[in-house]
Amino acid sequence: MKFQPDRSDTQTVTGYGPGWIAVDAERLTHSVIIGFSGERIDWKCERFEDLSPAHFAQLAELDAEVVIFGSGERGRFVPPQWLKPLMARHVGMETMDTHAACRTYNILAGEGRKVFAALLV
């Protein structure tokens, strides 16, 4: 018995490996924000250490219920004060390693949720 549809009406992560992810079969080697309704925005940071409060202020401007933050090869958390713009707009954020973030994004987007994934590759 199959539990997953053969086709999704939303953009999905179709693969990943060290230093890359594939979004709808297009291989990307840079950090990116992807959204439930087809948004794909280059995220100007290559490493966790490059992040700043401005990156999370950018995420707060998205029309999202929840943002999944893929922090790279391992789960790493940013300072809580960086999340204030998201909290002010009542946008939830979950942090996990990038591969887990890809899987979680696919599940939530497939359920029709207003989800974005901010992924460090």
Report the major sheet: 5 strands, mixed
Task: Name the CATH superfamily classification.
Answer: MTH938-like
| SS class | alpha/beta
- Secondary structure: helix percent: 10-25%
Shape: globular
Number of domains: 1
What is the helix/strand order?
Answer: EEEEEHEHEHE
Radius of gyration: 14 Å
How many helices? The count is 3
Poorly predicted ranges (pLDDT <50, ≥5 residues)?
Answer: 1-5
How far apart are the first and last residues' alpha carbons, in Å? 34 Å
CATH class: Alpha Beta
Mean pLDDT: 93
- Share of residues in strands: 25-35%
**CATH topology (fold) name:** Hypothetical Protein Mth938, Chain: A
Structural notes for this entry:
It holds the Pfam family DUF498. This is Xcc1710-like domain-containing protein. It comes from Comamonas flocculans. There is one protein chain. This protein is α/β, with parallel strands linked by helices and 121 residues long. It has a single domain (13-119), classed as Hypothetical Protein Mth938, Chain: A. It has three helices and eight strands. The protein has a five-stranded mixed β-sheet with strand order 5-4-8-6-7, covered by helices on one side. Strand 2 (20-23) and strand 3 (26-28) form a beta hairpin. The radius of gyration is 14 Å and the shape is globular. It starts with 12 loop residues before the first strand and ends with a strand. The model is unreliable at 1-5 (pLDDT under 50).
Layout of strands and helices, then pairs:
Elements: E1 13-17, E2 20-23, E3 26-28, E4 32-35, E5 40-42, H1 53-60, E6 66-70, H2 84-88, E7 92-96, H3 98-110, E8 115-119
Parallel strand pairs: 6-7, 6-8
Antiparallel strand pairs: 1-2, 2-3, 4-5, 4-8
